[in-house]
Each structure stands twice: as structure tokens, then as C-alpha cells.
Amino acid sequence: MVAIKLLRIFAEKDQDGARARKRLNREVYVWHGLEHPNVVKLYGTSYHMSGRPAMVMQWYENGIAAEYLAKKNPDADRLQLILDVARGLEYLHTHSPPIVHADLKGNNVLITDEGRAVLCDFGLSQVVEDLGRPTGFTLSNPDTGPVRWQAPEFLEGEVEPATLASDVWSFGCTAFELLTSTMPYGHRIRDSQVIRDMHQGIKPSGSTDGAFLTIEPRVKTLLDASWSFEPTERPTITRIRVQLEEIIASRTNSDDL
């Protein structure tokens, strides 16, 4: 069993199609060589569906993390899942050369048969944006797009490339999403309101979000640091991973007493 993800790229011109394939194949070549328990295994690509590129990857019956937590296992160890996400992202960031995910959110986190989190679709949003096409990774609701997970530096006038620091902001948003089953900026209905909040320095949890208050204090501190509006002040994903491991270890030790 494999999963086939059909990208919403359909180049009208042959030169655009060739450019899309070249860029996609470059990303696939990198992804195909990765081996980590928290990264989805990619087998290759296919162009057999009306010429559109498709990713062929490992199949996970549990599907995406957001739906798994909402419908299949709401009592799952959510802290362990965000640690899995941190480990997968650390693997990408410490790769040689470093790999920026650039599209980290709950819909790009899958759950294995063993109930662990794995990352997928890194680099693909940049492939599609290279053609100026819709990414295909937005949610079904047109009012809630990927801006809710993107770092505020993307709102500046000039187009900024994704960075390790922007991935850390997105990690905080994804962790918040998985811990609370609430979207970043869940207090806002439309993305235009999210953008306004960002300009006003309001973080993804909102100013008085009740779901955020339920998170373990040390984890809240980590998320808050990852949402620094100054990219250089955000912690590295390695620092986040180490601190999450310490939090989980202390929780386990407390349970043994």
C-alpha cells in the first residue's frame, strides 16, 4: 500500500512543465535519500495522471495528525507527538546541507501505525510557488490558508525565502494545533484578520486563548519563544527538542513516584 499525493500543478506551457519537473525532481532526490523514523518515506514521483506530478510515499492508515487526534484517538500522548515533530524537523535542519520544511502544519504531519508522528511534504510548497500556482496545501475552508502557520517575516513587502527560523515559528503553530486541536489564530475567522494581528504583534495563541492556558507551563514557554517576532531570537529546533525531552522525562519520573 502506498499513498499518492497529486499536486495541483498543471503547466499550460511545455517550458513551464519542464521547469516544474526539474524543480520537483530536485526536491524528490533529496527527500528520497532521507531516513528517519519521524520523516515519511518517499518512493518517487509519477506523471501518469494527466501529466500532473504525483508523490508516491508510504501509506499510513491513521492519516493526518489533526484528524487522528480529533476522531481516532483524542487521548493520544500529544506531547510525545510534538516531540516526534521536533525530532523530524531537527533531522532536516541538521542535514548536510540543512533542509527547510517551509510548509509545516498539522496537515503535513502523519501518524504511523504505531501512533507516532512523521513529517511530509517539505519543500513542495516552494516547488509550486516557483510556478506561481495555487499550492494545493491550503485547507478546504478558503478563509483559513497557510498564513496561520507562516512566520510574520513573510508579510513584509519583499518575498522572503523560508528559513530554519521560519520553520521554528511554524513548529510552534503546529505544536499548538496538535496540543489543543485549535488552529493558530483560532480566535480569528479570516486570514485577513490574522495578518492584522501579526502586524500588531499578537501571537498565534491570541491574547486570551483558553486552550493555550491549559498547556503545561514549560511547554507554553517554549511555544512563546518560538513565536518571537524577531527571527534571530527564536530557539533552534535542537534546543526545543532537548527541552521537550526533559519535560517528558520529568513527567515520567513524577508518575513513578
UniProtKB/TrEMBL annotation:
Question: What single Pfam family name could you report for this chain, choosing any that match?
Answer: PK_Tyr_Ser-Thr
Show the InterPro entries listed in the entry: Kinase-like_dom_sf, Prot_kinase_dom, Ser-Thr/Tyr_kinase_cat_dom, Ser/Thr_kinase_AS, Ser/Thr_Kinases-Pseudokinases
Q: Which GO terms describe its molecular function?
A: ATP binding; protein serine/threonine kinase activity
Q: Where is the Protein kinase domain?
A: 1-248
Q: Which Gene3D superfamilies match?
A: Transferase(Phosphotransferase) domain 1
**Mind telling me which SUPFAM superfamilies this protein's record contains?**
Protein kinase-like (PK-like) (SSF56112)
Source organism's superkingdom? Eukaryota
Q: What is this protein called?
A: Protein kinase domain-containing protein
High-level lineage: Eukaryota, Fungi, Dikarya, Basidiomycota, Agaricomycotina
